[in-house]
Write a structure and sequence with these properties.
150 residues; alpha/beta; D-tyrosyl-trna(Tyr) Deacylase, Chain: A; six-stranded mixed sheet; two-stranded antiparallel ribbon; 3 helices; 24% helix; 37% strand
């Protein structure tokens, strides 16, 4: 499971001109699911993200997590995070989980985030063509992969 986490001052996602999710200050999470991913990946990644200290404290130092700030979270599924560009110029997406597997884990991820945050998480629409808008605050962008825990 791979996530690109961006600290934002606002973010939104549209499907066919309809806004399906919109937040103010908080985190935009682009989430990609691989075939071998499972519930352990969901649990580890959600816990890691909600505890990431990437928000400024009163002194302007990144010491606070989303739990401390009470910010919002927007999660958008993105299978292209598992693109392989090893051969040629056309990315291969064979590492990405099949839609039925990926959707189940995506939904579990959203549910677990809601549980840990104690509030609703905004989302895009799984499998749809989406337009994502954001203002990256910092900029702060973190990439986390459950198979490469750095």
């Amino acid at each position: 499971m791979r996530a690109v986490i961006q600290r934002v001052s606002h973010a939104s996602v549209q499907v066919e001109s309809e806004v399906t999710g919109q937040i103010g200050e908080g985190l935009l999470i682009l989430l990609g699911v691989e075939e071998p991913d499972g519930d352990q990946d969901v649990e580890w990644l959600c816990s890691k993200i909600v505890n990431l200290r990437i928000f400024n404290d009163a002194e302007g130092i990144m010491n606070n997590s989303i739990l401390n700030t009470g910010g919002d979270v927007l999660v958008v599924s993105q299978f292209t995070l598992h693109a392989s560009t090893r051969k040629g110029n056309r990315p291969s997406y064979t590492r990405a989980a099949k839609p039925e597997v990926a959707q189940l884990l995506y939904e579990r991820f959203v549910s677990r985030m809601e549980f840990l945050l104690g509030k609703k998480v905004k989302t895009g629409k799984f499998g749809a063509m989406m337009k994502v808008s954001l203002t990256n605050d910092g900029p702060v962008t973190i990439i986390i992969d459950t198979k490469n825990k750095e």
